[in-house]
Design brief:
It contains eight helices and ten strands. It is α/β, with parallel strands linked by helices. The chain has a single domain, classed as Glycoside hydrolase/deacetylase (TIM Barrel), CATH 3.20.20.370. The strands form two sheets. Strands 1, 2, 3, 8 and 9 form a five-stranded parallel sheet that branches. It is globular. The two termini are about 25 Å apart.
Length: about 300
């Protein structure tokens, strides 16, 4: 599989990311201080009260969205990385079984879909370790990658390195993986992307599905051209409750079908990280730069 990613050290690989957060979102009923604030209408309920209406938006992702997302992947035969809040998989074992059955990757998206940036280092370490253990139990394999709920701490990457994670994806600074040498041992960063995420259809001002698909296609075209001289990647993140709506799923399906028709490499993020390590093995030079991008020569190479 890795040989299909940047076969001659250059080219484009696309990472399709399916976020599984439904059932693990914030809720006073789960002991959280407030209700889940990420809502299709942007409604925030204060005073520690639950947002029962928004909870049904999340249930929609499980009741309807999952089947549609799974159908796109099955009909096109492409692989995906599922960034999973561990509790969500515990509560929806059918999703874990689907991931296992097709050999997709289950990356870790925390124990629950809650913010960890306010946690102490010990609490964050426990949060990450428990999540990894849970996902290993539900999916049969320990997660190789991690994605926080957007905000993370100065300790997060060192904790990931300590826990044996291959890569972190909490980064938006590049179209290529790179080494972060601030941790011991160093960890691979496989950058994610917000601009191509389907949440752009859930937040105001929002894209229409056609505008989102066009944005994805334009991004693809540019990165295909740039991939003729260097190794690059494109991330497309989707959510069961967002892209799984009938009026949105067609845009994602059309884009994924275009990837297949054009012969674009699509790979799991764990495989992208492993291929990066093959191309850019790292010999740490204490006097060298603290982060090394893919288009730079790592210290000692």
């Amino acid at each position: 599989m890795n040989s299909e990613i940047w076969p001659d050290g250059r080219g484009l690989v696309v990472s399709l990311v399916v976020n599984v957060e439904e059932g693990a979102q914030m809720s006073p009923q789960e002991g959280d201080s407030g209700a889940e604030p990420v809502d299709e209408l942007g409604v925030v309920v204060g005073g520690g009260r639950p947002n029962l209406a928004n909870d049904t938006n999340y249930r929609y992702g499980l009741n309807e969205g999952f089947t549609r997302v799974a159908s796109v992947l099955e009909s096109t035969g492409v692989s995906a990385t599922w960034t999973c809040a561990a509790t969500a998989l515990e509560r929806s074992p059918e999703i874990a079984e689907f991931i296992r059955s097709r050999g997709d990757e289950a990356a870790c998206h925390g124990l629950r879909w809650v913010h960890q940036f306010r946690m102490s280092e010990d609490a964050e370490r426990q949060f990450i370790a428990q999540a990894a253990t849970s996902i290993e139990a539900t999916c049969g394999e320990r997660p190789a990658g991690y994605l926080a709920r957007y905000l993370f701490t100065s300790s997060t990457r060192q904790i990931l390195a300590d826990e044996g994670f291959l890569y972190d994806m909490d980064d938006y600074s590049s179209d290529s993986p790179f080494w972060d040498l601030t941790t011991n041992p160093p960890i691979v960063i496989v950058p994610y992307a917000i601009d191509t995420n389907d949440m752009k259809m859930w937040t105001a001002p929002s894209y229409t599905p056609d505008a989102w698909r066009k944005y994805l296609e334009d991004t693809l075209d540019v990165l295909l051209r740039e991939g003729s001289t260097r190794p690059v990647m494109m991330s497309v993140g989707v959510h069961l409750r967002v892209v799984g709506r009938p009026g949105r799923i067609a845009a994602w399906r059309a884009f994924v079908e275009q990837l297949v028709a054009r012969g674009v490499a699509v790979a799991r993020r764990a495989d992208i990280a492993a291929r990066f390590r093959e191309l850019y093995p790292l010999a740490v030079d204490p006097a060298g730069p603290r982060t090394v991008a893919i288009n730079q020569t790592p210290p000692g190479i």
